[in-house]
Amino acid sequence: MIRLGIVGLGKMGLSHLAIARAHPEVELVAACDASGYLTDILSKHTGLKCYSDFERMLSTERLDALLVATPSKLHASMVAAALERGLHVFCEKPFVLDTADGERLCALAGAKGAVTQVGYHYRFVAAMQEAARIVASGALGRVHHVRAEAYGPVVLRQKGSTWRSSKNEGGGALYDYACHAIDLVNYVFAAPDAVSGVVRQGVFSRDVDDEIYCSLHYANGASGQLSVNWSDESFRKMSTKLSVWGTNGRLNVDRQECQLFLRESSVALPQAPAGWSIRYTTELTEEVWFYLRGEEYSAQIDYFVQSIKQGRKDGLNNFHSAILTDRVVSMILSQPQASSVAPAAGAGATSGGKSKWLKIFG
Amino acid sequence: MQMDRVLFGDNQFFGVNHMSEDKARAQQMRFQDLSAVIETLDAAHAEGIRTFMCTTHDRVAQICDHMRQNPERYADYQFYPCMPYAHKYANAVTEHGMVEALRRFLPEDGAVSAMLKGGAALARKDVAAIMQLLVDAEMKMFAGLRTPVIFMQNVIVDLLLGLGFKETFRIFHDHVREKYQAEPGYITMNLPLLLDVLEAQGIENPVVCANINKIGFRMCGGVQSYEQAIATRRFRPVAMSVLASGALSPREAVEYVCRQPQIESIVFGASSRANIRQTKQLIDELTAAA
């Protein structure tokens, strides 16, 4: 049994708690959260041992591993404290907000021999794994362009006062949504070497970005685009999509399906014919022991547990891989914003927009 | 209370498709107008399907209005509400935080918000009260309509199951029975595990809706353990995702379910009259043959 502690019982923390408690090889020893309301209910009704003081939980309980699901700005210090005590660590995404912190934690984890993992759950979506397998096979030829998109209905009006709407705490669509899209690019193709043309702006939020767009550049000449908007109500929930273009075809992948077009069939991928082949999540997904919101959430926890059992320190989503994602975020933040032209005020802008639409639709 | 053999599901109306986001979006466009939804419900009704098993999505309230306005036409019509529409909560939690989100979904009631603010000493009774109020809030849209079975949605069932919040199933059960004289139902992706917990809570012969399909799609514990549970345990199975979102041929899919005589009802969703008729006839035919 892996003796697991968990800190942070927000939406992700509760989801992890439910999944980990249902895992046959995990003993969920204790949880910690600043909200007495929640921990009172949990301890009273589910028998969970709860703490409000993180240090006290670490010093009192004998743990093998810690799951960190607190607001992002707290990750670095909590992960460090856990590693210092020799614990394996699963940390929610984004990993840390400062890549120097990330490097330090990586070194510390290495020195302590800890298993590490960050909660980029899309890498555990079967269709995404299939996409990574296809790109790695080389069947697409030389990959020259990649496009990552993430849209969803999170901030749909002006307001907001949780940590997700605070820039300094790791909020905004950049950390909440764009990180996933970036991490998928890194996973399925490769981490970009530079970014440019960065647009980050609020649609409804005052303090954080609701949409992020930028170009990605690779030393080998390949390029990419990132397009993220969490103020898009046309989506029922977060939707993440990746497209990859190569000299021999193209691939589109989202949570549900992996669509591949090959100009010519390839020995690298004998099962795929020339033309389109499509594989669906229903056939690709492996069963998990417990399902809450998607197989990937369970699969990543199980993977962490198996990594601990096997001593696997270079597994999927380890701290090193998460730093590569943090680094792209840093590049986006350090880029000057692409110049934008303020829209003309009043009716002129509206009628201009209208005539453009009329042109398109006749 | 006998459940109908065939129940009409609502995924197609709200852009839920487990195989394709493009299909989901196309359906969302098609069913943007309420009239298109009503037309499809009427088509199902004409095929003899008079039970609509639906999430408590905001748009269902409009469907309810329509049914209330035409009482004669829908004299035999009934709903199996599934609560809550979880994305409504999930998005609110992201936007407002947990406690504030909960507060927003509770009816305006000074005592309750005071209780949530207090926080410290929550007695057992208070969790029950919160749950009852949330159920009542979700049930408002069905006022005056028949709701003989009321389901707790799988995201909530499985969250509570994983957390170990076992008594909430009992609270839900008692409240649905007492206040609505309805049969409580539970939707889950973790059937064998849930049955153990419901049994331990003294909930006898519960209505449980789960994915039941030949390929084991989202059947945690595996096809075999599901088949065994269905064959040997005392509960009232409702099969959903029978077609595994289109991964199976309809005949093969329905045959698999009809071979298991304990399965009382099958819920499916479809958009066209032809598909509704085909699936309904297939279920009727294979049920009679079994």
Structure description:
The complex is a heterodimer of chains A (362) and B (290). Chain A has 362 residues and is α/β, with parallel strands linked by helices. Chain A has two domains: 2-121 and 306-310, Rossmann fold (3-Layer(aba) Sandwich); 123-286, Dihydrodipicolinate Reductase, domain 2 (2-Layer Sandwich), CATH 3.30.360. Chain A is 37% helix and 23% strand. Chain A has helices at 11-21, 36-46, 54-60, 75-84, 99-112, 126-137, 172-188, 281-284, 295-310, 319-334, 347-361, and strands spanning 2-7, 26-32, 50-51, 65-68, 88-91, 116-118, 143-151, 194-201, 211-217, 223-229, 239-246, 249-253, 257-262, 275-280. In chain A, the strands form two sheets. An eight-stranded mixed sheet of chain A has the order 8-9-10-7-11-12-13-14. In chain A, strands 3-2-1-4-5-6 form a six-stranded parallel sheet, sandwiched between helices. In chain A, a hairpin with a 5-residue loop joins strand 9 and strand 10. In chain A, helix 5 packs antiparallel against helix 10 and helix 7 packs across helix 10 (319-334). Chain A is globular. Chain B has 290 residues and is α/β, with parallel strands linked by helices. Chain B has one domain: NADP-dependent oxidoreductase domain (TIM Barrel, Alpha-Beta Barrel). Chain B has helices at residues 21-30, 34-46, 58-69, 86-96, 98-105, 110-118, 124-139, 154-163, 167-180, 191-200, 223-232, 250-258, 273-289; strands spanning 6-8, 51-55, 78-83, 149-152, 183-188, 207-211, 236-240, 265-268. An eight-stranded parallel sheet of chain B has the order 1-8-7-6-5-4-3-2. The model of chain B is unreliable at 114-125 (pLDDT under 50).
